[in-house]
Amino acid sequence: MKFTSKHALLGVWTTAALITTGASAGLVTVTDSLGATVYASANTTAALTDAMDWVNTHSGNYGVHAQSGRYDAGTNIASNASLTWGSSPGVIDLMGGMNVQASAQMLFEIAGTSNSAAPTTGVVDYDTVLADGNVTYLGTLSVALLSGFTPALGNSFQLIAT
Predict the structure, then answer these.
(1) The whole model's pTM is what?
(2) Residues 96/133, Cβ–Cβ less than 8 Å
(3) Is 13:53 a contact under the CB 8 Å cutoff?
(4) Could you tell me what percent of the chain has a pLDDT over 70?
């Protein structure tokens, strides 16, 4: 059977494998250079790392959307990938470092100025990456303003914290 679509949710990365169930179970081959979006579940071992490793070995432009929460490994953001996460906005907590390659992109969403609860509750006004290791950022950092928020002169946002 041949399936053609510009958008389809085929599964969610929850462990060391892309999990597909039901009608979508089986081998998924992405052959179009447009790429795909891979979803990673938080609070699971190596889900984000494995998702990025998969993206890194495939051609095309890929998005990786990670749930807000803790990931038990650092990650390497592949050069053909863009990373988004959270509940718009949200917190991604990496137990390790982060290496963002030169052609990679991360999108940070900002809806306000307070992130005081980021480490404890994950309730935040702007996207935040908490990394326990070293961070190397060579890629593109994009910002989207949400809910009509307009930053004032002097506002600051710690988007990546180590």
Answers:
(1) 0.68
(2) yes
(3) no
(4) 52
